[in-house]
Write a structure and sequence with these properties.
globular, 15 helices, alpha/beta, 2 domains, eight-stranded mixed sheet, Glycosyltransf_2, 333 residues, Glycosyltransferase, transferase, Glyco_trans_2-like, glycosyltransferase activity, Spore Coat Polysaccharide Biosynthesis Protein SpsA, Chain A
């Protein structure tokens, strides 16, 4: 069997709703020399049936069917089984534009100093309609990528990237500790060994909907992202990365011990708290306690009284009262 130019890596769990158009968009690429690894991570809907149906029609599809182990384990298995030197990530709820692979493989061929190339995205809602997003585009130069790290801006759209397989393997692949932000941690580790950026073309339609991971695990994702940034700073300063061998991240109150200095946990709370003030999910889960601790540590009060009102509209009167009391006490202090 000849080695394909690209291994397409898709993990899916209970993805029947959007899976067929996602697969069709990969099979419809103008660059067709690829193998398509689709890993069904123990789904209990029609995912397996859909995957097997497409595999019967297109020999480029290689199904991997097994019990549920989670996304990070799935991504690392896909990386291990990929035969091609380049891996194109793809999610089961997004849509590739036909020229995506051709544009990205051409860029990597012409820029051997780059290990990862993404693309800008067209953001859509669950029905395929326009979805409004704010903020800067993903950086289209490596220098812009480093600036984005320093400012906490978006770095790459994970399902839109193509990367060099051996390079990602060399840095340890995806780390289990950074569940729900495993891609950010990987980009930050790669940033010290290769160049990364995105093509300034919208080569993927990126779907937003309530059931996706970034909506269901917003607080955990933001905490993990903040810790990944702390680990990046440790590496950049020439110090060992204390997160490198962790199977899971510790509670916030143990971060100072993990990083060997006072203030690590406080720094994480300061990075995460402002982003939770408008999040219904975050204010309803353990993100609320993080915000309270942030205020007790002298965090900025701007917008907090509006958050009290917002909690009332969210049907959280007890949390609204507690936040108001915390604001009053910290003001008096």
């Amino acid at each position: 069997m000849s080695t394909p130019a690209i291994s397409v890596a898709m993990s899916v769990y209970n993805g029947e709703r959007f899976l067929a158009p996602a697969i069709e968009s990969v099979l419809g690429q103008t660059f067709g020399d690829f193998e398509f690894l689709i890993l069904d991570d123990g789904s209990h809907d029609r995912t397996r049936e859909i995957v097997e149906s497409f595999a019967a029609r297109d020999s480029r599809i290689r199904p991997i069917l097994r019990e549920n182990r989670g996304l990070v384990a799935s991504l690392n298995q896909l990386l291990a089984e990929a035969r091609a030197p380049l891996v194109a990530r793809m999610d089961a709820d997004d849509i590739c534009l036909p020229e995506r692979f051709a544009r990205q493989i051409a860029f990597l061929a012409g820029n051997p100093d780059h290990g990862v190339i993404g693309s800008w995205s067209e953001d859509i809602d669950e029905n395929g309609g326009p979805y409004a997003v704010s903020g800067p585009e993903h950086p289209d130069t490596h220098e812009g990528f480093l600036t984005a790290i320093d400012h906490g801006w978006p770095l790459l759209c994970h399902p839109a990237v193509m990367y060099r397989r051996d390079l990602v393997r060399a840095v340890g692949g995806y780390h289990a500790a950074f569940r729900h932000c495993e891609d950010l941690d990987l980009w930050l580790r790669l940033a010290t060994v290769t160049r990364l950026c995105s093509l300034p073309e919208r080569l993927i339609r990126y779907r937003h909907y309530a059931e996706q991971v970034s909506s269901r695990h917003a607080t955990e994702q933001q905490i993990g992202a903040a810790i990944a940034r702390l680990a990046y700073e440790e590496r950049r300063a020439g110090r060992p990365d204390p997160t490198g061998d962790l199977a899971a991240l510790p509670p916030l109150d143990r971060l100072d011990a993990l990083f060997g200095r006072e203030g690590a946990a406080r720094q994480v709370r300061a990075m995460v708290a402002p982003g939770l003030l408008y999040s219904r999910a975050g204010l309803s889960d353990n993100g609320f306690e993080l915000v309270v601790d942030y205020l007790r540590e002298g965090g900025l009060r701007a917008g907090m009284w509006r958050t009290v009102a917002r909690l009332l509209t969210f049907g959280e009167p007890l949390r609204a009262a507690r936040l108001a009391a915390t604001l009053t006490l910290t003001f008096a202090a």
